[in-house]
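The following block was generated as part of the benchmark described in Methods. Ligand: guanosine-5'-diphosphate.
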Amino acid sequence: MNINSDVTGVILAGGQARRMGGKDKGLIRLNDKPMIEYIIAAFKPQTSKLLINANRNHEVYSSYGIEIIADNLSGFCGPLAGMASALQTIKTEYMVTAPCDSPFIPADLVQRLATAIENESADISVAHNGDRIQPVFCMLKKSLAQSLNGYLAKGERKIDRWFEQHNYAVADFSDVPTTFDNINTPEDIENALSRVIANND
Ligand SMILES: Nc1nc2c(ncn2[C@@H]2O[C@H](COP(=O)(O)OP(=O)(O)O)[C@@H](O)[C@H]2O)c(=O)[nH]1
Ligand SMILES: [Mg+2]
């Protein structure tokens, strides 16, 4: 795989953010910059194309000049619904997802997921923090679209159980655990702020 031409990046920003009072998390400001801008900055250089999966505020997100796709399934069915819509849309053989609420994405996220999937000739690779898998950081083959649509059509919603139906590889990120620090509550914003500011210095 050539990660410069074969991988579409997908930012998952389609949730309801209930723990954030329903505010659109990707647009919440962290040190005066919408959270999605941190993800775009880290993720864009790692992919040949970027998509944003969002179910509201499409006009705001489109100001970044990035294609926006909504969930095909209505009713906020969880991140798998965003992954399914994205798999149907992409033109590349692979896609990599990252959530909109994790501002500390490493520069080699895609490379590590690609190495894991290739080493094991797998259809999926998923990031592991040393303790457990982190399913919203994954690489999927486009050929899985039908399987995922079928799984969702049965009413299934759990990501890990769908992964288990396939040959999936695990990519170790235990040396960069901040990758998975994600911002779910107003308190999390306060905690992340000092780190974001330190990173900017
Ligand atoms: N497309 C889509 N994405 C969702 C949905 N629900 C959650 N997500 C995304 O999944 C990711 C994880 O959601 P989050 O609420 O932060 O869950 P947690 O951090 O795993 O507890 C975020 O990027 C959300 O935007 C949904 O119904 N549709
Ligand atoms: Mg989260």
